[in-house]
Design a protein that fits this description.
Distance between the termini: 74 Å
Strand order of the largest sheet: 4-13-12-11-10-7-6-5
Number of strands: 15
Number of helices: 20
Shape: globular
Largest sheet: 8 strands, parallel
Structural class: alpha/beta
């Protein structure tokens, strides 16, 4: 017998041998029964390994092969708690998570003995400070009014809010904690496309009602948009804004399905679907087919909601498609009150790996493109811009405000605030902290009153840190942030202002002003108001 064969079957052979020896000896030494039992069980496992046909490792290494699967199962935990460096962003670093936990618990976020970051590595970013700092402003004043000329009920929105996460993806307890936290802190909670559930209404926090292609909460029996159902839900005082979801950063251009087994009575009621049947989110809307039709749909929603702000969310893909929407705005005179740019960095939704890794424009590039297009079409001062995508800290907020956003949304940051430990089991219904599960026993771990306080504290302490950063830079409100306030290291020996790194379109450039860059000029030429398809030369 070769040494290789001995190594492969040694563990199984030892179990078999111990079983064979200990069984007869138990008659004389009764204390051997635990040894015989353990060895016998392992022997039976080894026999099963030899006979099964699904796992080659177990056939070649009976009993011992299970160690491989055990280690693989706990690999994420081992890496996260024992091997991961403080700044390994997978997808969020230990330092980022710790910051949220500390601020949510009102433990502060101060760091002793200097930064752990390499300030000389390429890509390091910072905000320039002033020799004449301002007194720190009250973070409660960090609000932005949303609502254009056709909006009868504008909304004064915080510059930091909860991004879209649906009931169904998150547990009932998580939704309640987030909404109560939003109520306590005076900021907005985006419902996600899953509709407005009873759990969103329990504590009365401000809602941004997101409407996706499934029209959950405002659909008829065929799954198409129902104006009457929309008007009934939109009339709620709790609903402050309406957001049409065109795409999301986690899986842009990809529909979704919630299997019937997961469509509980609560989820069915919130979404307006049948209990126990598959709940489908198509990859595209049925209420409009062209940019012009979408503008008319926005006008319809604004009218049906009684004049509340209506906008849309998207992750930028084909540039001419967004520019086509802007051309439709100019052609029809109908403007959205706001646009939310979602980054291709992904979000809370589970998605195919290829979509998460290789689809969708990253947040900063998408945000800059939206800002430039609106400026070039002389529309920026009429439309507010929100942004979402891996936003955790005050610096994250400041950086996207400086790039052109009016406010920031965060999803995973607020998930950390209510207890998420980044186990990445969101899609398995086995969330260890009760955040992303419909299992009632697992949800018991999430105590709503306690976690709601943490949500409010995380928001308050993050905006307090933002106020302190602004004061150091000589500013007193986030709307004063501009690209020249941020700096990035571009090499080991050189740093540049964001205003020197990025391209910024001047007002009116797309309408016949100065010639914009070839990218913007070509994309604008291809854009059509009557179709999402590009205009070919």
């Amino acid at each position: 017998m070769s040494m290789s064969l001995l190594n492969r079957y040694a563990t199984f052979a030892i179990c078999l041998l111990v079983t064979a020896i200990s069984l007869p000896l138990m008659e004389y030494w009764g204390w051997l029964w635990p040894v015989a039992l353990a060895a016998g069980i392992l022997t039976l496992i080894g026999l099963g390994d030899l006979m099964q046909s699904q796992h080659a490792v177990l056939r070649n290494y009976p009993v011992l092969g299970h160690v491989r699967y055990l280690v693989e199962a706990i690999r994420p935990e081992i890496r996260q708690y024992l091997l991961e460096a403080d700044d390994d962003r997978l997808p969020f670093s230990r330092a980022q998570r710790s910051l949220v936990y500390q601020r949510a618990k009102n433990e502060g976020g101060d760091m002793p003995f200097g930064t752990l970051m390499d300030v000389y590595r390429e890509g390091y970013e910072f905000i320039g400070h002033s020799t004449r700092p301002m007194p720190s402003s009250d973070p409660k004043s960090f609000r932005i009014e949303i609502g254009g000329a056709e909006c009868a009920k504008p909304y004064a929105m915080s510059v930091f809010n909860i991004s879209a996460m649906s009931f169904g993806s998150l547990s009932a307890a998580a939704i309640q904690a987030l909404n109560k936290g939003a109520k306590l802190g005076g900021f907005a909670h985006d419902t996600g496309e899953g509709g407005i559930s009873a759990h969103h209404r329990t504590f009365g926090g401000d809602l941004v009602w997101e409407i996706g292609s499934g029209y959950f909460g405002c659909r008829n029996a065929e799954g198409r948009f129902d104006p009457d159902r929309f008007a009934a839900n939109a009339a709620s005082d709790q609903v402050k804004m309406i957001e049409i979801k065109l795409s999301q950063g986690a899986k842009p251009g990809h529909g979704g399905i919630l299997p019937g087994a997961k469509v509980t009575a609560e989820i069915a009621h919130a979404r307006g679907v049948a209990e126990g049947e598959d709940c489908v989110s198509p990859s595209r809307h049925s209420a409009f087919d062209t940019p012009v039709e979408m503008m008319k749909f926005i006008a319809l929603l604004r009218e049906l909601s009684g004049g509340k702000p209506v906008g849309f969310k998207l992750c930028i893909g084909h540039p001419w498609e967004f520019m086509g929407l802007v051309k439709a705005m100019l052609e029809t005179g109908i403007l959205p009150d706001f646009i939310v740019v979602d980054g291709g960095e992904g979000g809370t939704g589970a998605a195919p790996v290829e979509f998460s890794d290789h689809l969708g424009m990253p947040l900063r590039e998408g945000l800059l493109f939206v800002r430039n297009t609106l400026v070039g079409a002389n529309l920026r001062d009429k439309i507010r811009i929100g942004a979402s995508g891996k936003i955790i800290s005050a610096f994250d907020i400041a950086s996207i405000l400086a790039m052109g956003a009016d406010w920031a949304n965060a999803a995973r940051g607020f998930m950390f605030a209510i207890g998420c430990i980044q186990s990445r089991n969101c899609h398995t219904n086995k969330c260890p902290t009760g955040v992303a599960t419909q299992d009632p026993l697992r949800q018991r771990a999430l105590v709503v009153p306690d976690k709601a306080e943490r949500v409010a504290s995380y928001h308050r302490n993050t905006l307090k840190a933002l106020a302190q950063m602004l004061a150091a830079a000589g500013l007193d409100h986030p709307d004063q942030l501009a690209p020249h306030h941020l700096v990035r290291r571009v090499s080991s020996t050189e740093v540049k202002l964001f205003s020197q790194i990025h391209y910024f379109v001047a007002p009116g450039d797309l309408l016949g002003g100065s010639e914009p860059s070839p990218f913007y000029a070509d994309s604008w030429r291809m854009a059509r108001a009557d179709s999402f398809d590009p205009l070919r030369a």
